[in-house]
Amino acid sequence: MSKQTFSTHHGMVDILPGESEKWQFLESVVRETAREFHYGEIRTPILEQTELIARGIGQLTDIVSKEMFTFSRGDDNYVLRPECTAPVARAYVQHHLAQRGGAQKLFYIGPMFRAERPQKGRQRQFHQFGAELMGSGDAMADAEIIRFMMRVFEKIGIRNTVLQLNSVGDPESRKAYKEALIAYFSPHREKLSDISRQRLETNPMRILDSKEEEDQSLIEGAPVISDYLNDECREHYAKVKQYLNDLNIPYTENPRLVRGLDYYTKTAFELTSPDLGSQDALGGGGRYDLLIEEVGGQPTPAVGFACGIERLMIACEAAGIELGKPSRPMVYIVTRGEAARDWTVGAIDRLRNSGISATTDYSRRSIKAQLKDANRQDARFCIIAGESELETGQFTFRDMEASEEVRMNFDEIVRKLNQDSD
Ligand code: HAM
User: Fold this and answer.
1) Nearest to 161 by CA among 316, 4, 7, 295
2) Where are the alpha helices (DSSP H) in 157-225?
3) What is the pLDDT of residues 87-127, one digit of tens each?
4) pLDDT (tens digit, 9 = 90+) per residue, 116-161?
5) Spatial distance between the Cα atoms of 156 and 151, rounded to a whole number of angstroms
6) Is the minimum distance from the CB of 114 to ligand 1 under 6 angstroms?
7) Does pLDDT of 327 surpass 80?
8) Which one, 185, 223, 329, 392, has the greatest CB density within 10 A?
9) Neighbour tally for 315: CB within 10 Å
């Protein structure tokens, strides 16, 4: 009887060679952009304390109430991080990053986990790149964070996007707005979906985020937050828009954009693409001036964004953008006989030590099969080594693209390959 086989969990995928080169390319674009904007990389653990995430993101959010992967061990409660803003805020407090002086500018790339129902563009393990600017309440910081995000998409060539912008205010503005929403929705509570009826009690602003059919016409007529912003929030929002205009970043104001995390204050934004289908957000973010205090730090204004890498890949495919090519070996050593294989162990090491990517056959196949394999792997050159070649020291060096062969000794081959790879 054959042994049981295993596969990845639902909504979690392997990224294989052929695909992973695209990821490497994208990551290099993010790193290059981070360098240009002068953001330092932060790498936080995959596991955090459940309490941090619950407090940071908000008990009543979908993420905390139903999408967390948690477990306990002894007295400790662990959660697989569903996002990275709360962890970065934790690190900022834990390591007293404020004492380094000025605003802290951090970026990250890594896996996040949410127990959502998987579908196209929605996974249980997915990947984000993001940036956080901590220690500035200036609208300049909001504009810079949005510019950073847009610059990555610009470099990759994804243009079919819409930047949606809103201000969700501060607690004072929101208090007035929530009251207005309750006054508006309450007389219609029977017409609302179950989930929106619940939100009317817990967090009425989240009704605006409802995808339920029966809520839509009511949402259309609901009061908008812009009418309830206090002077400070209104001025901040105006300044953000002014800077985006100065930077030639087009945006659409969406007064119903509330986002799915509770920590936002003032600016909230989302980058959507019609190429993505129902999961249309490529990225999102905003200002979170109260989060750092909420997780035990000094009051510290901050702003950031995160984008989904899988969704970016889908958008690239839709736009016909090729991200990075599968890697190909520079040289493939074809061997005939035991002595040639023995020789190859040292010879291939010498090639690799001089920076040349080299591979060979590992299963004692015929010359014909090895040449076919070299072709399949798209090797640029082949070295053919058999007993007579070892005796004379002259190898067949085959240019796979030109289909030409010359005889050379190994030193000459190494020199030639080094010249070609420069
Ligand atoms: P978020 O909107 O929850 O924000 O996630 C950001 C992006 O991650 C989404 O726009 C989407 O592209 C991607 N994403 C989210 N969930 C999934 C999923 N299940 N499968 C695939 N992709 C997904 C945040 O996470 C905030 N931390 C952003 C932020 C940073 N705000 C301030 N700083």
Assistant:
1) 316
2) 171-185, 194-202, 216-220
3) 999 999 999 999 999 999 999 999 999 999 999 999 999 99
4) 999 999 999 999 999 999 999 999 999 999 999 999 999 999 999 9
5) 9
6) yes
7) yes
8) 185
9) 26
**Rounded distance between C-alpha atoms, residue 272 and residue 253, angstroms:** 13
Tokens of 274: 């019609």
Average pLDDT over residues 261-266: 94
Among 394, 324, 307, 233, which residue's Cα sits nearest to residue 28? 324
Q: CA-to-CA distance for 93 and 64, rounded, in angstroms?
A: 22
> Is the C-beta atom of 289 inside 6 A of ligand 1?
no
DSSP designation for 198: H
pLDDT of residue 211: 85
Ligand 1 and 284: CB distance under 6 A: yes
- Secondary structure (3-state) at 268: strand
Closest atom, ligand 1, to C-alpha of 82: 25
Distance CA 307, CA 379 (A): 35
Q: Output phi, psi for 365, to 5 deg.
A: -85, 170
pLDDT at residue 326 greater than cutoff 90: no
The response to whether residue 110 sits with its C-beta less than 6 Å from ligand 1 reads no
CB of 311 within 6 A of ligand 1: the answer is yes
Pick the closest to residue 123 from 135, 131, 115 (CA basis): 115
The most distant pair of C-alpha atoms in the chain lies apart, rounded to whole Å, by 95
Pairing relationship of beta strands 125-134 and 104-113 according to DSSP bridges? antiparallel
Rounded to the nearest angstrom, the distance between the alpha carbon of 307 and the centre of ligand 1 is 6
Distances (CA, A) of 254 to 51, 180, 226, 232, 266: 32, 18, 10, 20, 13
Q: Is the CB of 281 under 6 A from ligand 1?
A: yes
No. of H helices and E strands in the chain? 15, 16
Mutation to probe ligand 1, out of 107, 125, 126, 288 (largest number of atoms < 8 A from CB): 126
Residue nearest to atom 11 of ligand 1 (CA): 308
Please tell me the number of Cα atoms within 13 Å of 161 on its side-chain side.
30
